[in-house]
Amino acid sequence: MAMRQRHSVKQERAERREQKRQRKAHKQAEKEVREKDKVDKLESTHMEYVPSLSVLFRFLALIRVVGALLSPIQDCDEVYNYWEPLHFLQFGQGKQTWEYAPQFALRSYAYLQLHSMAIKLLHFVFGFRAKGQVFYALRVVLSLVSALCEAFLVRMVARHVDRRIANCTALALFGMAGLFHAAPALLPSSFAMCLGTLGVAATMMPPTRDLRRHMWQRVVPATVAFAVAVLVGWPYAGIMAVPFVLEEVLVPGPGNSGWWKWRLQRLAVLAGVGGVSALLIVSGLVAVDSWYYGRTIFAAWNQVAYNILGRHGGASTLYGAEPWYFYLKNGLLNGNIVMVLALLALPVWMAYYMALRITARSAKGSVAGLRAAERLIDSHWLLLFRIAPFYVVLGAFSLQPHKEERFLSIVYPHMCFCAAAALSLASPLKTWAREMLIRTRSQTGQTESNKLRSFAWANIVLLGVAACIGMLRMTALVKYYAAPVRAFMELPATSNTTQTNELLPLGPSVKMFISSSHKSLNERADERVVCMGEAWYWYPSSYWLPEGYRLQFVQQTNATQGQLPGDFIPVYKSGSVKASTSVERTDFNGLNEWEKSHVGELSTCDYLVDIEYPERSSNSKQVDRRKWKQVGECQAVLDTENSAILARILYVPHSIAQMMAWTGGRRQKWGQMCVFQQHKFESVQFE
Prior knowledge:
single chain, alpha/beta, 6-stranded mixed beta sheet, two-stranded antiparallel ribbon, disordered C terminus
């Protein structure tokens, strides 16, 4: 009996100790939740100001316009697939790639017409007097559109996600070197970047119970933006919309009950909006492209069929294959620290999620604490869908063998958002390590407010360093690779013009702009031929050829054996633009095979634009100065093969470049892009 009583007493004591331990744990959990709320409040008040849309646009526009005026064209595909056809539509002559041959029809004239109409509107307002003005005006407009889309993204992040993340996103965008050259580019991938940014911005709004509000404020703008990006711009940009579609299907809004009802409603809205948008867009595209090609054409489908389904014996690998880590290297080049932070966004999200789950388990005895933890977990799940587009695009494109730098540009703004999310989650993540916080306070005496200020300043400093590195990259692009435009400006004017690159035979009025009787459509008796050989991919476009000049390729010893662009049939020969764009020709192929008819003889050239690299004398022929005379000044071009890697990707002042023997013993080496004029009535050769 006595033993039973002693056992009962021990059991009661153990139960009381357990109850006491549970009460203590519950109090501690409530304390942690209150501390977390306090930390969040301090953080939000510390960086609660977010610039307005107008202020953001002005700052971003300043940087992007500088890029439009100074950054060189990064990809020869931009020149030959977009600037040259656009020049043909405006002036009746230009280079033509095989993608614009009617039997292939991989490119859309509707895309070019959008930009042509913008130029006509600008010409109506400003009255351009030179083709170079048209070139820069269009790049400025493209840059302003990109700046507006980026500013809208920041404001939507501030409104629906977090103000700290919005501010960090803005700071990352300011110094993003990739956007310096991607924003003004006349590329479908840059067009898709802008529209994709608008679509991603619309998805920042969380799902709501009100179906009407959910449809008009989230689904409609996001779906239309993604549809335009895919159908008008770049078909492969549709992968950016995958997280949005999954969120619509998987994530319920507040108060949504049942399993099927709200899902069926959302799917119906998504399918309806997407179907109507696609129908309207495709109808317009098919109508425009069919007129130019002379038969029913849907260019976006032809492009997918060629690159993925292998139509016409094609495959994207015909144009090169890169290793799986190509985009990681490219992202570091164009994003530096921002790329690293963006890659850390998902690991930091997972760590933060684990901390929230631990807190939720410890707060089960407290209704208020449990609800607070569940709210944080729900909002944290939404953040996963916000950062997912960057990882989906990076992963999908890395699996493809054919890779190009411009492909990743569709997520450059979103990369900045992911980097900001990683930074924003890093500081509150430490508040969950209770023992670390207590130890830090006892050792240093820092308060929560001081710690938050130090975290905020650390974020600013880190993004400031990233911006400085980005500025060095931007400067390198301008200093090292902008020679082609300056070189072509050395070409002298013809006898019928008073200055080089004068123009626009169109004049300042709209009536003359839309007239078909301007000089560029008439055959010229004094046409001059400018030739390019191995340096054909440096051509800055026909917008930098003075009136009365024509580009011709010549084959040199080390010239590429791939298919070089041909020429659109000049309008003065065909009679109309449609007659030139709709005729099927036999000098184009879809296998990237050499076409002899696309090159001419060096003896027929009046001028030659060539690059000479002194350090590559064994690999590159030098122009015979006895047969050719130099015109104007030569322009410096960095010799990337013989320069140290750091000296070619970032701007290095000349004095420092001379001290860079520690980078593998190689310093900056330079070549020269020069314009040469042939001496008349003399044979031409390379020595």
